[in-house]
Amino acid sequence: VHTVTHRVAGGEHQDRHPASRRPESPRDVEAGHVGQADVQHDRVQQAAYSLMKPEERVALHLQLGRRLLLDQDEAQIKERVFDIVNHLNLGSALVTDLDERELLVRLNLQAGVRASQSTAYAVASTYLDTAIELLGPEGWALRPDDRFELHARRVECVLMAGDSSRAALLCHEL
User: Which of 96, 100, 131 has its CA nearest to residue 116?
Assistant: First the structure.
């Protein structure tokens, strides 16, 4: 478990060691042998992950999300926003620093906007729900413009996802 989680937490960017990959010949493709090492590796990772305690998983996701943010410029963050936000959201229970929480709010907003631009409205509303939750009641007092933007975008996404009754309820929050 330690070896696999250490590899993951260590920030290796390559999912599989090159030596573990077999060259793919036409015979391998025809016989259906392509990717068997990948499947076995994925199962080992899943097994290691399942053996971790829930609080270790939360910490691991937070660490992974933070590593993904390191040394990234704005364009790279925009490109990988879903990967980054998904890990940070899974670890958000451990985020106590207000600046980091605000960053996570902005990243969730960015992910929500990007998802809605791809017409993935249900996914977008989930990111926006998370942003609103992370901002919390004290954040609303400090950032009323953000509050309105987040709520308006969430209502739009919920409505476009086909949940008109929830959208009507959310309108009352505006």
Answer: 131
146 Cβ neighbours under 8 A, 6+ residues apart: 105, 109, 135, 139
Q: What is the pLDDT of residue 8?
A: 44
Tell me which residue of 174, 137, 136, 140 sits closest to 154, measured CA to CA.
Answer: 174
User: In angstroms, what CA-CA distances link 4 with 40, 47, 137, 162?
Assistant: 13, 10, 39, 41
**For position 13, what pLDDT does the model report?**
40
Q: pLDDT tens across 25-75, in order?
A: 445 545 555 555 666 778 888 888 888 898 999 999 999 999 999 989 999
138-155 per-residue burial string, b: 16 or more CB within 10 A, e: under 16: ebeeeeeebbeebbebbb
For 51, the token pair is 């053996």
101, burial (CB in 10 Å: exposed 0-12, middle 13-18, buried 19+): middle
Q: What is the mean pLDDT of residues 94-98?
A: 93
Greater model confidence, 163 or 19: 163
The rounded distance, in Å, linking the Cα atoms of 159 and 12 is 40
∠ CA(103), CA(106), CA(107), 5° rounding?
85
- CA 165 vs. chain centroid, Å, equals 27
